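Recap for those who missed Tuesday's class. We walked through two folding examples back to back. For each one, the amino acid string is listed first and its predicted structure tokens come directly after. Nothing is annotated here on purpose, so try labeling regions yourself before you check the end of the notes.
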Amino acid sequence: METTVQATGHHHVICWKSAFAGLAVALVTFFALVALGAAFGGIGLSEDTTIRKVSFFTAAALVLSVFLSAFAGSYYSVRVARMKIDLTGIVQGTLVGSLMLLLVMGQTLSVAGSLLKATGALVGGVTAGAGAAAMDPAVQDVFEDAAGDLKLKSEPSVVAKGVATRLLRGDQESAKNYLAYQASLTPAQADAKLQEAKAKADAAMAKAREAAAKALKATGWTIFLLLVTGLLASSLGGLLAVKANERYFIDTSHEEVLRARRLKI
């Protein structure tokens, strides 16, 4: 009996030709929806728009785009594959959704990787991390302000970077000697300047770490939601396509559709 049912539909569990066709439909739909979301996002921007609102709109638009595009691609794939078994349609639809997510997630994960690298530089206490943290604009501003009233032998930005790098890696004695040399100060005077600047720099670094942690958390949840949404939408699209195939195939003529409806009546 199973052979008879399969003879009216598809003969394989997976049809790669229709999978790639569905993938093409999914990607085109996704890029069209993303462009539409960007257009509406640009229209919605105003002077009182906050970063929080923009981030929420972007995440919501991205999730909706993934859902609709995964559904459209999987539905199209199962329809052209002429599948008539529920589980087979779900498997085919999930495959299309997975292929689409692999391509779409590539760019998203590269952004997340950059964010992870930046967070590691802020949190890590190694020399490389300290050097990257010293380049943070907030940290640079703190040390440049502290050295603003001093006559330095080098540019203020150069001195600020040198002092910040030494302090952030825990070498306070070197930072004190470096500042004393650059500003022609006594070690005691340089130490007083450093203590004041270090307190402000620590506060700036704490804010930077907090902001990086929030951004990383939001990125992680967004990626997880995109994956779950895409897989659910593709499975649903495949299942609904199977139900549509049970009535008639996508290439069924209009006369055959009318005849099938009359027979059911």
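Example two. Treat it independently of the first, because the proteins are unrelated.
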Amino acid sequence: MVQNTQRGKPALARANGIEIAYETFGDSNDPALMLIMGLGYQMIFWDEEFCIQLADRGFHVIRFDNRDSGLSTWLDHAGVPDISALKQLIAQRKTVSAPYSLLDMADDAVGLLDALEIESAHIVGRSMGGMIGQMMAIHHSGRVRTLTIMMSSTGAPGLPPPEPEVLSILLEPEPEDREGFVEHSVKIWKVLSGTGFQIDETRVREMADLSYTRGVNPDGVSRQFAAIIATGSRKEALKSVTVPTLVIHGDTDPLVSAECGIDIADTVSGAKLLIIKGLGHTLAPETYPQMIDAISRHAV
């Protein structure tokens, strides 16, 4: 049962040379648990109910907008990368440069911990957020108490690609008007959600509408995607990670195959693996109890 969880007011913190928008749930004296969102999505897609249930388990929960997302700093001065050209360079095994890397984004998260005067935190990253969490464990292991990686990948070559239907929809230009953006978001959510759970269209529309109000940044999504491409595989570096790691993945994820999650668990020494039947690449409320139980047991 949900308790009367303390909730901090949305705020901005100066971190790693930019401003990071963040929000907290729970008692600041409890162990910190930081939630890191995926490509192009704002912190509000860590559903309030999910955050509250984690706080009710005794965590000080922090969610935030990544750089180039929501109310955090947009790096418009960095320009818009040519994603197709970057992919060609990767295929040719040539050096790739991007406006910033996943390590820069990991440094943002560490900078936010600094701003909040938090020595170390349990890190939970989803999709690209799971990649950022990996970079934190590789480069800032002393700041990571435990790591939970959801719906993510090592980035190693040879892993299964996204399903074609998903790629075609994700590559469609986002409508610029509010109504079109909301309906496009629902369309994407339906494709990403997998086969086991119905989406709550009303809730998705609410979050998409709020995202539009807070600020939609297609150029920022391109820069984040370029960071993923330019960073490349983390597989070798992950072999030396000793941070206690939990991998959570859905068995019907159409964007990041379950084999990618299994690859993480096989790579990080001692990692635990939870495969959720019917789950795709979205957070289904029906799975919150299972996920939160697993994260709470892990984050000790």
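Answers for example two:
The longest helix spans residues 178-192.
Residues 11-298 form a domain with the Rossmann fold fold (CATH 3.40.50.1820).
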